[in-house]
Amino acid sequence: MIALSTARAATPAFFAEAAAASSLADGAAPVTLTHHLQTIQSYGARQHYSRNETIFNQGDEAGHVYRIVDGTVRLCRHRPDGRRYVVDFLLPGDVIGFVESPDQPVSAEAVTEVSLVAFPRACFDRLARDSAEARKQLLCHMSESLLSAQQHLFVLGCQKATERVASFLLRLAERLDVMSGERMDLFMSRQDIADHLGLTIETISRSITALRSGGLILIPNAHQIIIRDLVALRTLAAEG
Amino acid sequence: MIALSTARAATPAFFAEAAAASSLADGAAPVTLTHHLQTIQSYGARQHYSRNETIFNQGDEAGHVYRIVDGTVRLCRHRPDGRRYVVDFLLPGDVIGFVESPDQPVSAEAVTEVSLVAFPRACFDRLARDSAEARKQLLCHMSESLLSAQQHLFVLGCQKATERVASFLLRLAERLDVMSGERMDLFMSRQDIADHLGLTIETISRSITALRSGGLILIPNAHQIIIRDLVALRTLAAEG
DNA sequence: CGAAGTCTTGAATTCTATCAATAGGGGTGG
DNA sequence: CCACCCCTATTGATAGAATTCAAGACTTCG
């Protein structure tokens, strides 16, 4: 029942939007869902959460749409038996809960200090109702999410431990706009990464060590990495 | 960048839509994307494909939206090194390629004999532009796809081989509306299932054997199964 | 009826998880 | 400001699960 396709062209713009708050000035079309949300900025309530605080729980009524201003959020599914799956990490500029829905299908938790803007569902719906452009961006955004999920399905379905870690680091670097050779912060814990990649914390640790030993990355400290050999890393990840 | 939520209420209707061609008569609201497509049925071209025939390839221009009338389709990503990932299987009533996109992010291949209706992208877009209701259904449909993908991420990320197979069988039974005790056709090959669940063909075979040995299912033949102990199967799948 | 392809089953190998212990880092309180 | 403690990460050894390699059985189709 899946079926999809994607607005690939929208990807770069979406990734870049966190930085381009002023937007619209720099050439191409970085108009995204986030920009449309800014037109209703005044209706949004600024909220702050501290580390590991819950923003909303799976099953909660989905009364708001959130735009992350600062910090990192993890979306996860918790299970009765304690198992947890981290669906994705969200970064500044990302939007959560953008679909008509009676309740939240996942929980959202602050990985770091987080500040975000919460828009009442009604405002969001009104925006979508009144603006064809906003609607289009909403569809693009959902396509992005779907493509992203499918890409990750491939990672979980086909790749080995070290390949998964390589894919994870590459995607994170892309989203954070961190260049090869620059330090990249890993705000999430090894456990978070493990639950996102379907591995254990020990395997994550060993994979990272293996990448370091192979000279693909540098590790100034446990929560920063530097991509040293981008080509080799990409070959490993081999995103087909 | 994920973020999502879902129109859970839309699920049953969507699953049921394949059967409810006349629809709209039976009480609740089985109005879905498919029904809206039927309003532009006359613009669609009926097409037929035989087993293993390609409907479109990854990277092809996305010029059409397809509604499956009969048969089973697999969406997959092929990789240079031969690895393949089956994103999902599509059944009668399902819609493919419903998002603004320059090209197809996955390939679509006929698992069985397939007949479908192909709508020009422009017709589909016009429908979405002119009908608020159709737009809403489109969003619900995408939400469904996204939730489905996320559910599957959980399966690949957290579950063991036998649990994955149990989840797969349960979801298939639900979608095909096959009751416990009834025969269910498995149109796809073990290899298809393996590539969908991130396992090997041998492991699929062993898992199915294990489920049979445990009395959870019966296997009249290699391409049919009967769910014998629904509760135990659900416990195994443990979809949290 | 025979052949090709698919599925099942078995044995050995490989990868990851699990169990266990140590090391490192950050925060708190003295 | 430093020492201590707790939490997190790393590393090692072992066990377990799935893959791989290999062979045989069953279907299906010509």
What is the compact description of this entry?
By secondary structure, chain A is an alpha+beta fold. Chain A has helices at residues 10-16, 33-38, 121-130, 132-158, 161-176, 190-197, 201-213, 230-237, and strands at 45-49, 54-56, 64-70, 73-78, 84-90, 95-96, 107-110, 114-120, 183-185, 217-221, 224-227.
Q: What structural keywords apply?
A:
240 residues; Jelly Rolls; four-stranded antiparallel β-sheet; alpha+beta; Arc Repressor Mutant, subunit A; disordered N terminus; DNA-binding; 40% helix; homodimer
Describe this protein's structure:
Two copies of one chain form a homodimer. With 240 residues, chain A is α+β, with helices and mostly antiparallel strands. Chain A folds into two domains: 2-154, Jelly Rolls; 159-238, Arc Repressor Mutant, subunit A, CATH 1.10.10. Helices cover 40% and strands 22% of the residues of chain A. Chain A contains eight helices and eleven strands. In chain A, the strands form three sheets. Chain A has a four-stranded antiparallel sheet with strand order 1-8-3-6. Chain A has a four-stranded antiparallel sheet with strand order 2-7-4-5. In chain A, strands 9-11-10 form a three-stranded antiparallel sheet. In chain A, strand 4 and strand 5 (84-90) form a beta hairpin. The radius of gyration of chain A is 18 Å and the shape is globular. At the A-B interface, strand 4, strand 5, strand 6, helix 4 and helix 6 of A face strand 4, strand 5, strand 6, helix 4 and helix 6 of B. Chain B binds a DNA duplex (30 and 30 nucleotides) through helix 7.
